[in-house]
């Protein structure tokens, strides 16, 4: 634009005897405005009138001119509206908890449960088995790894850091965001803290330290960015693991048929793996509950087999393996083998692959169900399985390469082979479900493009299915399998190092699988240990900031568990050249996607805040808004929680008329899992009463279901608006009554005296609302005023003529129908922006916005009820 100081829009003809903004209907030169490029740094709009012509149908040319920034005195918080629905309860019966615990076997613990197939086989490729110390030392290392990380860390600590039953890195981030204002999107309101699920029960012994941490996090933007990147990194690693785990699990299962079925070669194995992967991802649409009940019996039988075979081997071969409970064997193991012992940690960490799924999948189940299943089924069965294998190795040390099936009694070989094949296929379910949960959470918190989400359970809100992610994972898994097939020429570089070559059949595989295993073994390990480190860091912050744990205990958590995880990370990073770079590539891709979306969304929101229309502009227009007000309700969707969005000016300039009632609807996600229905809406009035304009902030948690039919949503919105109008009249009557009686005990009157006058918002000076805003009382902002405590003169507010007029006007507008006013926004970097910003905003972020789920797709609204105006934001 040539003139940087003026933003000029098209002419709109108005009906009236003069050109001063009377009611107008249309005629003359009227055109639709696509939307012009708006400088995001321009202050709020103002109005300049230019009369053109002296005819009865006057023409008013609107020019939006820069004005000094003013405080929007109408941005006063109102109250939330009570609905008809109660809170969602998380209490579960004993039988329901046990049923969920049974389902967790088929969803959460498949990956960890199949680790006995290959852990010792991989460990003893790095360490020669020369004495009892080697076997008992490796066994002790595996046992204490399982006891410390999955059991001590996750079951007893991390699972308790859930966010109202939701787990994962974003759940930890939402906890931190609720207590400290560290979110990159500045749309938090004081009224959000009144949501029942928002409040945190804070102890006080370490309060001063927690407040210092909170102050530092809120003050330093670099710490906010670092915290966000840490969360995004952990989430991207989980998603990357969701790509690799199914491919690895299915291939390891199918490869067991080689050598047992005549003519079953590499090509057949690849084709069968692809078919199984397609089937595995195809059944995800039936939901976690059905999949869990279908898979759980197989995994339950698998764990029973592990425990039974382990007991059999211990009693038959060597009962002295119980000496491995002495942790001194770990020290002797490292003392004897030194560097080789450190190298074998990369194989030892495979015994806890899938441990992070215990926390990430928490939203699909419950804390108690996951704790019960691991403590009483998974943990003892795994210990017995590893102890049984160690007992067999102490008798037959040459069987390390095929330890699992060699230790199986001959009469059980084929049944165990079938169960192991099925269990290995199911093992990937944990990371698939965790990926769905992580994407849903990141999407709700503004860190992932909008996608279609299907809730597959009426009872468990966390059980979801995301079609796009599901098919993306399937395609990537098939590509991984295909790439392995096409890169067999690299097999010679690894020779016979694979400890997995004789894993399932006891016979040598082709050079295909000799290549595959040394390539894929580090993949899951790097992603798994990386997520564990992120979780350790975030839980430590939760301990210090929210739980306010004793400083010594809070520091012991990262010192103990973080040290162990860093040790394992150092070992698995040494395998980068052996294929460990692949999960980092996937994680980096998703990290870029999530950070780009968050970065662009924050810039767009900041632009809208700077562009919001000033109250001077609205007051100069008058109650007619300079156009015709026709019956109907216009729902203008925007992202602002305060102020009037600039897109409203585009609608005024573009449309020949505007609705008699306008509601600015803001769909806002707050950092809580669920917002109760009765606390969903936050209403307030915009402009004086005769404007009939309101703001509605519809608040959702990151687990909430947004599947409302538009008729039901409209009905609920109007009912809530009526309640708001009645309560507003009631509060105003109460204020007037108290002022007349001059009660000395009302301290809020003096507080209201500081509100700016002269802007037409005297009707919003509601002392009890201001008291709610500043008071730390326990009462929710949505609590209704007890009508029994009101004076008799205030009980008949329905007789208020102005209230009756507003209610009748609202009903008339509702009868005329609803229109959805949406902005088709485009975000562009300013010309003087640096190159990387232009690259990310103009290309990457623009590509994500064009291909994500549009706002209209989230609403089941007929297209004839939607009006869209294009607007470009320069950021």
Q: Gist?
A:
With 875 residues, the chain is α/β, with parallel strands linked by helices. The chain has 28 helices and 14 strands.
Features of this protein?
875 residues; alpha/beta; eight-stranded mixed beta sheet; four-stranded antiparallel beta sheet; 51% helix; elongated; disordered N terminus; transmembrane
What do you see in this structure?
The protein has 875 residues and is an alpha/beta fold. Helix content is 51%, strand content 10%. The protein is built from 28 helices and 14 strands. An 8-stranded mixed sheet has the order 3-14-13-9-10-12-11-6, sandwiched between helices. Strands 1, 2, 4 and 5 form a 4-stranded antiparallel sheet that branches. A hairpin with an 8-residue loop joins strand 7 (454-455) and strand 8 (464-465). Helix 1 packs across helix 9 (288-316) and helix 4 packs across helix 10 (328-337). Residues 1-90, 486-521 and 743-798 have low confidence and may be disordered.
Summed up, the helix count is 28
User: What global shape is seen?
Assistant: elongated
Terminal CA distance: 15 Å
Overall helicity: 40-55%
Q: From the alpha-carbon coordinates, what is the Rg to the nearest angstrom?
A: 32 Å
Report the strand count.
Answer: 14
What fraction of the residues are assigned to beta strands by DSSP?
5-15%
Mean pLDDT: 75
Assembly level: single chain
- pLDDT under 50 segments (min length 5)? 1-90, 486-521, 743-798
Structural class: alpha/beta
The largest sheet has its strands arranged as: 3-14-13-9-10-12-11-6
